[in-house]
Every structure is written in structure tokens, then in C-alpha cells.
Amino acid sequence: MFTVYDFFSLDHRRCDDAFVGFERALDGDDWGLAEEQAGAFMGEMERHFSMEEEQLFPLLTERFAGATGPTRMMRIEHRQMRALFEQLGHCVERRNARDCRDVAETLLMTMQQHNAKEEGVLYPMADNVLGPEAEALTLALVEDA
């Protein structure tokens, strides 16, 4: 069975890899590549957030009212990260390495804490609540990707 945990945790790793690509470009002082990698990273994150916000969260809260609080918190954290994406984009446009590193450090810490909550609580809850629907959801998401 392909679980919510399996699918979204793997997708977290894909987003993390994109972030590492941005950091490497920044460390190499290659602003063209840094801009490209920042765009790729933010695109991966938006794709991930959209799958959660448009597919997983609504289904989970429909099946289990107790999921409303956790999904609301995840949406709040998504908004916080989107604000950091915007800041990161401005830093890259200005070619300000120090500011980029500061925002990237805050973003990394935020992502790590967020992912730990999702992987430790939300995704296992989803697998438990959704049962066989979890596999149907993840298979549909794989097909859409």
C-alpha cells in the first residue's frame, strides 16, 4: 500500500533536494543559477502545498472533524513559508548573498519544523483516518504529477 506518509514524505525530500540546489548555487556565487534554482525550489514547494491544500486537507477534514485544527495550522505555516519565498526572491533579485543566506536559514528551520509535524502527526493521522482512501488519493496524485 502506498500511504499518504510515503507519498508526501518522499515529496518533502524532493523539495529539500531543490533547496540544496539553490544553496549550492548561492555558495558558488552563481547568481544566474541561484535564480534558476530558487525558482525551481519555490515551484516544487508550491506544487507540494497545492496537493496538500487542495486534495489532502479537504479530504481529511471531511472524514475526520478532529483534523481541522492540524490542517488549519499547516495552512498557516504554508502562508508563512510563502512570505519567506517572496523575501528570498527579492534577495536573489538584488544579488544580496547575506540576506539570501539569512532568509534561507529561517526558511530551512521553518521547513524542518513543519515537515516534522506533518510526518510525525498529520500524515500518520491521514493514513489512519482515510484507510483505503489514502492509497487512492496518493495514486491519483502520482498520476497528476
Describe the structure.
By secondary structure, this protein is mainly alpha-helical. It has helices at 4-27, 31-63, 68-94, 97-130, 132-144. Helix content is 90%, strand content 0%. The chain has a single domain, classed as Four Helix Bundle (Hemerythrin (Met), subunit A), CATH 1.20.120.520. α4 (97-130) packs across α5.
The major sheet is characterized as: none
Helix content: over 70%
CATH class equals Mainly Alpha
When the domains are counted, the total is 1
**Terminal Cα separation, in Å?**
19 Å
Unreliable residue runs: none
Shape: elongated
Succession of helices and strands: HHHHH
Our Rg estimate from Cα atoms comes to 16 Å
The CATH topology assignment is Four Helix Bundle (Hemerythrin (Met), subunit A)
What structural class is derived from the secondary structure elements?
mainly alpha
CATH superfamily: nmb1532 protein domain like
Write down the oligomeric state.
single chain
- Indicate the mean pLDDT: 95
